[in-house]
Amino acid sequence: MILQYKDIPVFYEDEGKGKAIILLHGFLENSTMWTDIKSMLVVNHRVICIDLLGHGKTGCLGYIHSMRMMADAVLAVLSHLEIQRYSVIGHSMGGYVALELAEKQPKQVLGLCLMNSTYEADDDERKTLRKRANKMAKTSYENLVRLSFTNLFSDDSRVLYKKALEDALAQALKTPLQGYLAAQEGMMSRKNKLEFFKTWNAKKLIIIGKKDPVVNGERILNETKETSIVCEQLSLGHMSYIENKKELSYLIKHFVE
């Protein structure tokens, strides 16, 4: 389904009945990544998957998509669907957007799961990498997407989950250059949300991959000790919905119920 928002289409899917669960994909992904998880959740819940700005079937709004701008587009869909209270699961960049939703609507968001994601801002090294990638994207976009997306998987995972990786990469390559550049700019400018996340009164879960090349799981485990944030660690990397599908399904089912 399509919602017209600020003269662009925002694509969403709305299935099932019950407590609302919002699923937000990561960078170079779209709502198709949730197919397996959605089929599990939709049995007992109302599940809404939304393509974030510049991804999937949702249009772009300029060349900087801040996480707040993305959250505003999500809220436009939720308002259209008259959803008042909900839980959110965000993968990677989707987690950054989910944190913005929680800050904007702290009482309406009942729970938040950061899946292979973090409350941290980009450090200087990560910002440098993003700037370099954006420069390269303008001349060699397809090669850059192939390389950066494949590098999210360990050597073993590239072999074990070859078909799933190829399918996910095919979706990543559908992301327009403008969407890529705008999301990178938006992720670079986001703020650290640890203090908010620690003090916010709701159900909070972080799912960490031990071999995640993007998220510093060890630091998260140390920073969230003796807080109300629950951390669960899975054995593999950043793409837990492919690499740790069974364990992830169990954690998410437990989280929403």
From TrEMBL:
Gene3D superfamilies: alpha/beta hydrolase. Keywords: Hydrolase. Residues 20-241 form the AB hydrolase-1 domain. It comes from the Bacteria. SUPFAM superfamilies: alpha/beta-Hydrolases. InterPro entries: AB_hydrolase_1 (IPR000073), AB_hydrolase_fold (IPR029058), AB_hydrolase_sf (IPR050266). One of its GO terms (molecular function) is hydrolase activity. PANTHER family: MONOACYLGLYCEROL LIPASE (PTHR43798). This is Alpha/beta hydrolase.
